[in-house]
Amino acid sequence: MELAPPPKTNSGIALAKRRTYNAPVSDASQTTAAHADDLLRRSLANGRLGHAYLFVGGTIELLEAHATRLARTLNCAAPPATGETGIPLEPCGGCIPCRKVDSGNFPDLDFVRPEKKSRIISIEQVRNLTRKVSLKPTEGRYKVAIIAGADRMPGPAFNAFLKTLEEPPERTVFILLSVHPDQLGETIRSRCMRVSFGGEADVQLEGNDTAWLRSFVGMSAETGEGLMGRYRLLGSLMDHLATKRDRIEENQEEASPLNRHDDLEPALRDKLKQELEASIAAEYRRQRGDFLTGLQWWLRDVWLAALRQGRELLHFQDWADTSEAIGRRLTPSQALENLQSIEATQRLLETTNVQEALALEVGLLKLKL
Ligand SMILES: [Zn+2]
């Protein structure tokens, strides 16, 4: 989905007018945008159209331009190229649907933007959208809903939207846009296929977490259902977290002044000890959170596989085979329940003083793999 092609057609001109973001573009972000373009095109070529995309990148204008282009592509009446299953790969720019999308008059394209005054997307806006997308497309192949500033959805609007996202009407494609995907919450992020147009960091797992997750994925593939297998996975998870905690303790104790001074006054020593403990606990919570987010992202891959989505959209490409094998023995709703279960576990651990082992046991035993 490159933005740069010289504007030849009406649509190109409209796009050019909107291209205020076309200020200096670094090589890196050009590469990212080209990669994003390639990824989308390949998934369309393979006949795998996602029902919800999350476009993330530097500016909302850039993302709107990409999203509008996808809306044109999907509904173009004379696409110059189509994929295996007849999904258009690019828009012609000159046909009636293409022109209507550009002028904002295409009846099957809905734009939702934060309200001017409140700067949020309201529940009324979400309800309105849900109503519209529940109807069949009138002129196009697909209904396309572009939600700009998707991170600006407070509680009730968010919940209403999540429901629509989880039970998407047929022939509807949601495109969420966000320049602050970190504020979007994993719940929505993990239900969309993320396409990055540059300017944001992906899920980053540290080396040990990646190694553990790799072996967990392998074990999951082998064990399948069964309580014994589940407890084996739980044991491995608890070991991994214990090692993580030990390492944090070691590092922080080594760096603490307690370690360097033997002659501290008892009051000061106590104070430093407490600070050290609090700091270890905080660091552990943070690292555990990152790690569980990684696990969540893998369960998202399994969910996408259960939905028979293209493997190029999976986050963990190295284990795509295994994730697909697992995803294909699950129904989409089972795979979605997995995601919900790990999210509930994370919330429990973050917001309450529930015993860690208990929370993880409950969460893990619920997983269907
Ligand atoms: Zn067209």
Strand order of the largest sheet: 2-3-4-1-5
Structural class: alpha/beta
Spatial extent as radius of gyration? 24 Å
CATH architecture of the largest domain: 3-Layer(aba) Sandwich
Main sheet specs = 5 strands, parallel
Beta-strand percentage?
A: 5-15%
Helix content: 55-70%
From the 3D structure, determine the CATH topology of the largest domain: Rossmann fold
Give the ligands present.
zinc ion
* Total separate domains: 2
Question: Keywords for this structure?
Answer:
369 residues, alpha/beta, Rossmann fold, five-stranded parallel β-sheet, 13 helices, 7% strand, elongated, binds zinc ion
Describe this structure in words.
This protein has 2 domains: 187 residues, Rossmann fold; 160 residues, no CATH class. Strands 2-3-4-1-5 form a 5-stranded parallel beta sheet, sandwiched between helices. Strand 3, helix 6 and strand 4 form a beta-alpha-beta unit. The longest helix is centred in the C-terminal third of the chain and has 41 residues. The two termini are 35 Å apart. With 369 residues, the chain is α/β, with parallel strands linked by helices. Zinc ion (ZN) binds next to helix 4.
TL;DR?
With 369 residues, this protein is an alpha/beta fold. It has helices spanning 10-18, 27-45, 60-75, 96-103, 123-133, 155-166, 186-189, 207-223, 227-255, 266-306, 320-328, 332-351, 356-366, and strands at residues 52-56, 109-112, 143-148, 172-178, 193-196.
